[in-house]
């Protein structure tokens, strides 16, 4: 089974644990449509990575609200992120521009949508973002220096900060781990938040991309206040009160349309 399929299964398990305090292991083969042996291998790997605890035929989340490795984040809310990326890229005019792009799975979708553009210079600290941009060899890509954060595959630190401060950007596009009234725009990582803050400060037009799961959440590292951005692109499952608040503040908030959500079935309950 491919690593991608495993990551998708892990993402499903983590999403279930976000809704239910614990899950019976015996329910997972049917839910995931794999064998019991495959489930046991997945859970052993997840426990080794510090994602779950296993005991007496049940699993619980080991670190609720903590940052997940970027390989797992790619498979969470993937369709919403793809649509957000396509819409956000359409907000960047088709003329020669200098654009800052952060890292993360949602900004990666923006990068893929921009990869065929000519005349763009993109400066990024995201190694995955850079890889997405060079596939079609149209965009001029500049990667900052710095130290790699293994959880995010992004470059951080003084070298990255210095490189970004040497530019003025027409547009900056960053992702967030949380967006709330009290916390503003937040990240799990203090060093990652500092990079995003500099990108926004150096840009004339500032765009935040965030799927609906980020709305209303707050984490320890603040990037900026909500008023620091011009545009937020999210999806139609976003909290309506949060969207209304952003619009009242004068932040242009655009929602990509998603199919209605179906309530998750509690593991172990009859169909």
Can you describe this structure in just a few lines?
The protein has 271 residues and is an alpha/beta fold. The chain contains ten helices and 15 strands.
Protein architecture, described:
This protein has 271 residues and is of the alpha/beta class. 36% of the residues lie in helices and 24% in strands. It has ten helices and 15 strands. It has helices at 3-19, 28-32, 36-48, 70-73, 78-90, 105-114, 127-133, 158-165, 190-201, 240-248, and strands at residues 22-24, 52-55, 58-61, 97-101, 120-124, 140-143, 147-149, 154-156, 169-175, 178-180, 184-187, 203-209, 221-224, 231-235, 252-256. The longest helix is centred in the N-terminal third of the chain and has 17 residues, at 3-19. The radius of gyration is 19 Å and the shape is globular.
Q: What is the structural class?
A: alpha/beta
Determine the number of helices (DSSP H or I, runs of at least 4 residues). 10
User: What's the overall average pLDDT, rounded?
Assistant: 90
Distance, first to last CA: 27 Å
Output the radius of gyration: 19 Å
* Shape by Cα distribution: globular
Strand count: 15
Q: Mind summarizing the main beta sheet?
A: 7 strands, parallel
Quaternary structure state of the chains depicted: single chain
Proportion of beta-strand residues:
15-25%
- Residue share in helix: 25-40%
Low-confidence stretches: none
Secondary-structure element series: HEHHEEHHEHEHEEEHEEEHEEEHE
Question: What order do the strands of the largest sheet run in, or round the barrel if closed?
Answer: 6-5-4-9-12-14-15
